[in-house]
Amino acid sequence: MSLEEFNANKSPVKDFYHGKTVLLTGGSGFLGKLFIEKLIKCGVREILLLLRSKKGVSPEERLHALLKKEAVFINYQQQPELYLDRLKVIEGDISRPGLAISNDDLDYVIKHTNIVLHSAADVRFDESMKESVETNVRGTDHLLNIAEKCANLEVFVYVSSAFSQCIKESVEEKFYTPNIDPLELIKMMENEPRLDELEAVSKKMVEPWPNTYSFTKALAEEVVRRRRDKMPIAIVRPSIVTSTYADPIVGWTDNFYGFNGVVSGAGTGVLRIFHIRDEYKADIIPADIVINGTLVAAHYAAKHPAEENVFNCTMDENHTTWGDIRNDCLSQKGVVAVKKSLWIPTYNTTRYYYVASFLQVFYHLLPAVFFDLVMRCRGEKPQILRLYRKVHRFSDVLRFFTNHQFQFATKRMRQVVDGMEIVDRHLFPCDMKSVVWSKFGVNHIRGCRVYLLGEPWDTNEEALQIYRRRRLIHLLMLGVIYSMYVVVGLRLLEAAGVPDLRSFLGCTQFA
User: Domain named Thioester reductase (TE): which ranges (predicted)?
Assistant: First the structure.
């Protein structure tokens, strides 16, 4: 939808954000970029972006680089002032005490902020307990301290995760009390003499959560819950966030996390065997459904502060399976190809852990050794084996979520969606029932190709020519390998005293 068309409509949700000042964390992240684009469209007065310096690059320089680079900022090239006039950098770091905000910036935030959108998080599943607590728990607590001081605050929104409560098979839209006091854990983490002790027992502490990410997300929700009497709050729990469905552009994404990594790995011929239960529900959700759903839920929570405003943003009302997603992706073999692929896509799945581990030797490790040997012969630095180490770590992280089945209640989110006016349904599409999964699968593959792998669509035919050559070589190699199997099998049968195959066939013909 164009900016002109969006502006031509008036709606309750759009009017709620129009002219407001929004404090946004995680603005340089995947969801953060989408929040920026949508809030700009809504005509907010200002977006206060909490950004830190990174690798010697100032927050302002990082922001300008993002605006120029990302296709999701669809109006930036023609109207840069539309963004620059409404984006104000607040230098800070969500993982630092007090968010490391200067006194002047803090005064500005407290004086002007109307809405807080907290989407920043450490999303690395294998992060240390200290770093996960600093960002996901303490960062949330310190942001709430600031929000309490904002005299004009209308709502505090925390973007959590549906898997914050993944220790339960059925997750309701309500608060759950964790088994550890989050504020006590923060104190332990800040106590340097006990830090080594904390890391030593962290694995035991996290159980039964599968990783520090989901564990600290659950603790952060508890931190938010304790401020319910101080300010209107909303918690939105998306499941595995993938590329956009349609808003503002089709198939956009900027990272290889989660499902994006699986699709990109399979499409480039890198990921060839994956441990997953194809018959299980695929807990994925398009990013624009999450963004629009969050903005709509925040509007609702501001109007109904006394309610328990926890919203599961998942596709349980309109789900698909991992097997169906796999088939949708494989339907694009020979239609979509990638020039920077390792080999042709050959994506296999199994529900058995030990089978997957065994087949990794033949599908991943042996080919990696072969490709690295070829690179050495060319005088190049071998890197495929190192790549597969990353692939296997990535697979280990996802294994828990692709081999467990969860049921997420969505009654509260459905109530909000059903209560939207018709114009809001058009401007903020977030009805989970509207997604056509086969369409999504095709667009997701193309989006990964264009936006993640950096290959414009007009190079697809050239990539297909490479694919066809490699496919022919692949089939010839399989023919040679299977012929060798037959020869070896016949020799083994002969050594075991089984009659010669020709004699056997002759006897069969005579009979």
Answer: 24-292
